[in-house]
Specification:
Elements (H helix, E strand, L loop, with lengths): L11 E5 L23 H13 L4 E4 L9 H4 L9 H10 L5 E7 L5 H14 L4 E6 L18 H20 L6 E4 L4 E3 L9 E2 L4 E2 L15 E4 L3 H10 L2 E4 L4 H17 L8 E11 L2 H12 L8 H8 L23 H13 L7 H10 L5 E6 H13 L5 E4 L6 H16 L12 H5 L15 H17 L1
Parallel strand pairs: 1-2, 1-13, 2-3, 3-4, 4-9, 9-10, 10-11, 11-12, 11-13
Antiparallel strand pairs: 5-6, 7-8
């Protein structure tokens, strides 16, 4: 309308919970509880900190396999609580922050997922989102009576049908189906309760669900765009797409692809928010931030594996020790692009012109899933966030503190005030559901509303008539 302008675009932030810290040395830092992943009071305290800071969401990833060796590769992923159970607990200790729970579709059934998600949406007051993953860990298959983890295309064929069935089940109850009319003796209106009668490639599901329609109608979907299929899925269906992008240029490319995919799917570009992972090493000065990274790296428990580093980076390292300078890397060889990047990061993070083999190894371990590492003073980290946000690389960030709780405290206490002063992040929540944190669009209509269920209504009429005659 003339004279009415849209509110300025603002950042979205979520906390990605790695209870003992994203950095693999963080669990050995004084003040960090190595058993925090199973401490309900600690988990609730992190969620409340994020809510007090007006974060959009609290996010729980998941894994369906582990081993003792994983403690050296990614300690925070070695042991963890089941996400839907944890979300129920966190929901009881928060009021406004969105809650993202992960469910791996490859080892799931749509009726179970529909019940769990709908139940948690009611219990949280409409704050749930579902992180749809298909899994990339071959080990999970043997935990679910399978010999092999499915290849990507089969996993996504299965996932897309499963998500469709779950959405139908959420709609199998119209909003007014649960009547609760005590005078008329009518608990449920059968004309507003629908069997979905789904018959597809992987599933045959009759329905209806035995949980009333979620408070958000359709629970928002979230996913991480890694493979082409996952990026296409996110562009077409997700409210939030996560990205593991280590550089600004990679983030711009990813952002552009997801936004274009959304438009090609009949959505608006702003219907999907792209949130790269952000690992912030923050100091009151730049020197403090770099010292933090180096202190955490010195605590990495993994032993230097030169053979693995040589294999991953395609650089001959035989005969070298950790203290030797890392060999020069051919600047023109495209096969060595990752090696060049790792060396550049090791040089930057350790503030040296001659990084050692150990420096490169420490970065290889610390990068985890390849999320963007932002390091510097609070002002410098805020500048980086703003640059990505204003230049087509991010709508916000999935924050992965390198250590907890201190890493989250630093982000909240030092960086957010700067972003708020610049008008880039909210002072207060304006909505109360996950969907409202990301959009002002209307609650989705029910696909079955208005169709009626004449067969069920007629059957109900016969039952009622019989009941009255007997009475």
């Amino acid at each position: 309308m003339p004279g009415i302008s849209n509110p300025p675009r603002q950042l979205h932030f979520g906390i990605f919970l790695f209870s003992i810290g994203y950095h693999p040395g963080a669990w050995r830092l004084p003040g960090v509880d190595p058993k925090a992943s199973h401490d309900p009071a600690f988990i609730a305290s992190i969620a409340r900190k994020a809510e007090d800071a007006k974060f959009d969401f609290f996010f729980l990833g998941d894994a369906l396999a582990t081993s003792a060796e994983q403690q050296y590769v990614f300690p925070s992923q070695t042991v963890r609580l089941e996400p839907f159970t944890m979300v129920g607990y966190v929901a009881a200790h928060t009021q406004r922050i969105g809650l993202i729970a992960t469910a791996n579709t490859t080892y799931a059934d749509p009726y179970h997922i529909a019940r769990q998600t709908a139940s948690l949406d009611h219990l949280s007051g409409g704050r749930l989102a579902w992180n749809v993953v298909t899994g990339a860990d071959e080990r999970a298959a043997k935990n679910f009576s399978r010999d092999h983890h499915w290849e990507n295309s089969r996993r996504y064929d299965y996932a897309e049908e499963l998500v469709d069935v779950v959405g139908q089940l959420w709609d199998s109850w119209e909003d007014t189906a649960l009547v609760g009319d005590q005078q008329a003796g009518l608990l449920v209106d059968p004309a507003r309760l629908h069997a979905i009668e789904h018959e597809g490639t992987f599933f045959r599901v009759k329905g209806p669900l035995n949980v009333a329609r979620p408070l958000q109608g359709q629970i928002p979907l979230v996913n991480a765009g890694t493979s082409p299929r996952s990026r296409a899925f996110g562009a077409a269906k997700s409210t939030v797409v996560f990205a593991g992008v280590p550089t600004f240029e990679a983030a711009q490319s990813f952002y552009s692809e997801i936004k274009a995919g959304a438009v090609a799917s009949g959505r608006a570009a702003h219907d999907v928010s792209v949130l790269p992972g952000l690992v912030p090493y923050i100091g009151r000065t730049s020197e403090e931030a770099y010292a933090l990274y180096q202190r955490l790296s010195a605590l990495i428990a993994a032993k230097l594996d030169i053979a693995a580093l040589e294999r991953d980076l395609k650089i001959p390292l035989a005969g070298l020790s950790g203290d030797d300078a890392f060999p020069s890397v051919d600047e023109a060889d495209p096969a060595l692009a990752q090696a060049r990047y790792f060396v550049a990061q090791a040089r930057k993070l350790n503030r040296t012109d001659t990084p050692t083999v150990r420096h490169v190894f420490e970065y290889a371990i610390a990068r985890g899933r390849g999320h963007f590492l932002a390091i510097g003073s609070a002002e410098e980290v805020a500048d980086t966030i703003q640059h990505w946000f204003e230049n087509g690389a991010a709508d916000g960030f999935n924050v992965c503190p390198p250590h907890l709780p201190g890493g989250l405290d630093d982000f909240i206490d030092l960086v957010l005030p700067i972003l708020r002063k610049r008008g880039l992040f909210r002072e207060e929540y304006t909505g109360s559901t996950f969907r409202e944190h990301f959009s002002d669009a209307a609650r989705p209509a029910n696909r079955f509303e208005g169709r009626g269920n004449t067969q069920a209504a007629a059957a109900f009429g016969r039952i009622t008539e019989t009941h009255h005659r007997v009475a």
